Request: fold
Amino acid sequence: KCQQVQKACFMWTFFIDLIFLTIFFFLIGFLNFSLTNLSVIVFFISVICVLRKLIHNILITSVIEKMFDGVSMFF
Reply:
């Protein structure tokens, strides 16, 4: 069960990172990457990192534990 939880955590992590990277690259493209926007981009990176941490913590603690309580009944 522990290994399954780790695998699910990894999948969630990968999925969330993918979403954030997509948003991030879209923003860079949208801002037409230039040195004047560097501070904006650094700001976005820090905001995205904080959001990522929060979402990971929320997902991994609540969603995955609930999910595996449900899944473990089937196995």
